[in-house]
Each structure stands twice: as C-alpha cells, then as structure tokens.
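Sanity check

After download, print the first record. It should look like this:
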Amino acid sequence: MVRSAVSQSAGVCRLPRPGSRGIIKTGQGVGPSLGIVLATWLGYNATLGPDQPAAVALNMRYLTPAMYLIGGVLSLVSYGLIYNLDRKTLNTMKGDLEARHAAH
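Expected structure tokens:
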C-alpha cells in the first residue's frame, strides 16, 4: 500500500519525517564529538584536568551558547529543506484533504 505524503489522524494533519531516527542518531554521535574537538581547539588540555588557564575557561563559556545557536540555525535550515512547504504544495495538500472529507 502506498501512503500519501500527508496522513490524517483525528483531524490532525501530520507530515512524514523522512529519516528522522537516522538524523537523531547522527546528531547524538556528532554533537559530543564536535564539542570535544572544539574544546581542544579552544585550548583545553586534558592532562591539566580541572586546572585549566582562565582564558580556556572563558572560551569554553563562549562555546556553550555558540553550540546552541549553531544547533538552532541548523535545525531551522533543516526544516526548510526537509519540509519544503511552498504554496503549491500546501494547496495540493489542502485539496487532497478536502477530497478525503468529501468522500466520507
């Protein structure tokens, strides 16, 4: 059975999430690795343990919000690319839903 691009359940329109599990698993693996690489790039030295220079601590403080900002921007861009909902697509979906409602 071929599924439509739009599924309807209890009057709620839901779009499919293509490969969302793969994206989540990739993000869970890449995110922490990227953080470690960036921390090393900012001067973090693991052999010093908690006795890092003050400049490294300051850089790490800047790294945290920067990672959240980059993640948010990537999420917005991803939604724009994955869920490409232009007017033509929305009109097609609306027409399909109206046809389903008329059939019932």
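If your output differs, re-run the checksum step. Summary of this record's structure: Helices lie at 20-41, 54-82, 87-103.
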